[in-house]
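Fold it.
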Amino acid sequence: MNLQDHTYLFTITDRFAIEGRGVVVVPGIPWTEGTPNVRKGEPLILRTPLGDIIETNLQDIEMISYRPGAKRLEATPFSLPKEIHKFDIPVGTEVYLAASANEQTNSEQDVDPNA
């Protein structure tokens, strides 16, 4: 698989399992200019540090609540389908938006860094 055909989003720095929801990966979709809008259900490609490829989709966008004085994130974490275990995706795994993703349009499910 040629990953140059896909949009690199980020490299996983941590992941954790939430019972009943799946694995949440961080930092998540960056809030930088030029990053495409990514919606729930979008196809993703994960490349582990050993070169294994996992084709999956964005299960859900995680809502983050901040405590007063807490550091604000510069990305939006999301969860993967429940079939993926956190040990399937080690720290250092690269996350790509698959080229087959439809053209992005604003919708309720979009990650909007200005929201």
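The chain has a mean pLDDT of 83.
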